[in-house]
Amino acid sequence: MNHLRASTKAAKKFVKNGQLQQEAVSLLKPKHCRVMSTSADLESHSIADSGPQVTVPAHSQVVICGGGIIGSSVAFHLAERGWSNVTVLEQGSLTCGTTWHSAGLIGRLKPTITDMVMLDYSRRLYERLTNEGHGTGWKQCGSVNVARTKDRMVDFKRKHALAKTLGIEVHLIGPSEIKKMCPNLYTDDLVGGVWVPEDGVVTAQDVAMTLAKIAKEKGVKMLEKVSVEKVVTKQGMVTDVVTSAGTIKCDFFVNCAGQWARAVGKKTVPKAVKAPLHSCEHFYLVTKPMEGIDTMMPVIRDPDGLTYFREWSGGILAGGFEPKAKPCFHKGIPEKFEFQLLPDDWDHFQILLDNMLHRMPSMQTAEVRQMVNGPESFTPDSRMLLGKSPKMGQLEDQISNYFIAAGMNSGGIVGAGAVGKHIAEWIIDGEPSVNLWQYDVRRFVRLHNNKKFLRDRVPEALANHYALKYPKEEYKTGRKLRCSPLHTRLEVAGAVFGETMAYERAMYFNNPDDDTFGKESRPMWSWSKPCWFESVQEEYWACKERVCLMDMSSFAKFEVRSRGDEATAYLQELCSNNIASEVGTIVHTGMQNNQGGFENDCTVARLDQNHYFIICPATQQTRAIAWLEKHLPRNGSVQVTDATSMFSGINIIGPHAQQLLADVSDFPTNKSDFRPMTVNLIDVGHASSVRAMRLTHTGEDGFILYIPSEYALHVYDTLMIAGKDYGVRNAGYYALRHLRMENFFAFWGLDLSDKITPLECGRGFRTKIDDPEHFIGKEALLKQRKEGVGQRFAQLILDDFDVHQDLWPWGGEPIYRNDKFVGFTTTCGYGFTLEKMVCLGFVGERDANGKLVTQKNINDWVMDRGAKYEVDIAGVRFPAKPGIYSPKMTIQTLDPVFVPAPNRG
Ligand SMILES: Cc1cc2nc3c(=O)[nH]c(=O)nc-3n(C[C@H](O)[C@H](O)[C@H](O)COP(=O)(O)OP(=O)(O)OC[C@H]3O[C@@H](n4cnc5c(N)ncnc54)[C@H](O)[C@@H]3O)c2cc1C
């Protein structure tokens, strides 16, 4: 007997039997499914053109590399939009990569609203195709996600709150209801769960084949046994795709090569395209039919137990996400890895098996049909890779017609429908209809594509799938890669670091005199008041009342130069604000796209007549250079350089900043000599050529010094020593965030995106919309100003919120106005001056279909006295007071409070 209860050794023996391995593949086929057991079988049933007689077209509007579910979905959606001159190239047979052995779970409860919108679209598509008579294996059995802990239940409640805004039916249930729905589950240790009746399962291969078949019927060429060998680019455009069956000229290329996508990227000439992903082994087992298993058994997810279960041919298919996964194929994927699996590994599987048997005790006597160990690709942050490929970390042409849709992190089946839809939009319309920044390949820098880094990081990315994702939780592997010159100093001072674009940034500082220093004795992550609350509070008040130093070295920095006035003309076209002010001035400006949305939000300092220094959020390093480069005059008259690593940044914040800088520099720092929003080249201590700007990103008075990196440590030490008299201290990014939020400052990537315009976030005054100069997006803004906007950035101050007891808002919470859903929060945090919880977010009226209604007087609508706002935090609604301007009491006073300035007579 090969019962699961039997020892691992016995199980190993059972599955290691060579014959079974053979037999097992065919056993994977459920009765209703068209899955073929071997590639030979598949070929005979394939809907694609295959074999040596295949000829490739001389030209195809779009060439898609990869005939898995993602490539098929992109082809399907292009064809649905009328683009049929499309060719899908598959090196083996359709679905032979990862798609064929997927477990086919279609669940929609995910951490962000964008995730949910996308997955809901996929689910509806698969249901539609089924209703139209196509075989997809779609079964609406619902899903039950169970919680072992209260914190997990909070996670479910947060997702429940999000799902409600989309009309997804979700019910919070208790252990007894779970037992009723799933009698074969052990429920005594459960806190509760969530029931999603319209979730379900598909047969992945059937969905992929259906999408491919419909695409083909609409004219798409689906070619098997044709591999992409080279992607030729000229002047930032793919021109030719060299294949094993000839060369195809194309207008667009889409890399949908799954775990091969990184290798396919390397086939690009003259310069490789980066697709940061790495394969990992991924497991499930299938049992023979078991007694009492209903075909409509809901999918069960026990994320605290790392596992999931679905019904499969009368038995159970159970898999999971182990805490320490196994990366594979580090040296390359074997040739002809088609319809293949990896060897089973029962030792590795043990942690999942133990949890399975615990949750579903009836499996103990089940007979194993097969263990499936299939490779799947994972990315450094466990989010998929979508979008146009920039050449990361270098100022080179981005390839404007090269798209990537890969790195699905074990969500490629449920993701495929939406991925295909949005990639098709991106190609046809020039951009996707929703903000996809969280998946955009431009969120990475070059080092993320480092193979060793990927190998070390992806096991954590796999584990992350079911891990409880607390707000602000950080990855542990592949850290300390990009460090500022101050890193060690800050570490010794108690810094707790977070990572952005692989850059280590001090988020807050533990007090080195505290007993708990360095011990992590308090839980690091939480849904409610975080362990860093008191530390950030101290840093906040030091910024308000004394002086703080913040290491801002991670900000992305660019130099723009020209011989004549081309740099000014170039930036005037890119920037919505007027940057052509006198030398030495600084301007905050957006860079808008054609729809008026923020491609970037930055600070532009005019260092010389034809020389500008641009500072952007750290997350913009790849995206900004791609945008800057895309619009460069082709005659080479303007040079753009990425200066991020050349300059370190130290922000001196607070009422004593002026005196502190005066003490260490010969440059006069009073406000008449060193005006706000101006830049001067100054000496600090013994260092020279420091670009000092009078501005902070928090609303306080102060300076930001951009220091040639080799002087940064000296400048920091000089400021720290001189600052002792002023009570100087370090402060981290959380303090910055709390200060700027309270002052109602929006930040790109958190509040602003390419779908938000300056008029929607109350920044019309920061544009040159009324000046004669043209800039990208001007027409869209003029139109919007005439017609009105659909949403408005607002600050919501929560009433009746107990900062010590209540669950905190972390961004992404639904906002209600007069009981009607009107938007989501973007950033939230405690306002130490206001002594209230503060949420920033966008609000707007929606029609019956959930579409924003354009309003001419949206400010009046937001501030209507009769309007009652509430923010939903994990199902509890907190009343909120709206505002559209910075609250007066948060504006800082210049009078130092605690530490008087020393008299140095
Ligand atoms: C064990 C397991 C369980 C899973 N369960 C689920 C689940 O329940 N739900 C879910 O949503 N997801 C699940 N997944 C993930 C899902 O299966 C994948 O994300 C999805 O199949 C990826 O599809 P793809 O099209 O990107 O890749 P693939 O299916 O691998 O397709 C890529 C194709 O590109 C082809 N190719 C590569 N190089 C070239 C070249 N040079 N020229 C031409 N063709 C090339 C390959 O041959 C391959 O067929 C699971 C994955 C595994 C391993």
Structural class: alpha+beta
CATH class of the domain at 753-890: Mainly Beta
Largest sheet: 9 strands, mixed
* Beta strands, count: 38
User: Unreliable segments (pLDDT under 50, ≥5 consecutive)?
Assistant: 5-44
Please identify which CATH superfamily of the domain at 753-890 we are dealing with: Aminomethyltransferase beta-barrel domains
Q: Which overall shape is indicated by the principal axes computed on the Cα atoms?
A: globular
Amino- and carboxy-terminal Cα gap = 92 Å
Heterogens: flavin-adenine dinucleotide
Please indicate the percent range of residues in DSSP E strands (runs of 2 or more).
25-35%
Average pLDDT, rounded to a whole number, is 91
The CATH topology of the domain at 753-890 is: Elongation Factor Tu (Ef-tu), domain 3
Report the helical percentage: 25-40%
Instruction: Write down the Rg.
Output: 28 Å
Assigned CATH architecture of the domain at 753-890 = Beta Barrel
Number of helices: 21
Protein name: Pyruvate dehydrogenase phosphatase regulatory subunit, mitochondrial
Domain Aminomethyltransferase C-terminal: 805-881
InterPro entries: FAD-dep_OxRdtase, FAD/NAD-bd_sf, FAO_M, GcvT/YgfZ/DmdA, GcvT/YgfZ_C, GcvT_C, GCVT_N, TrmE/GcvT-like
Family: Belongs to the GcvT family.
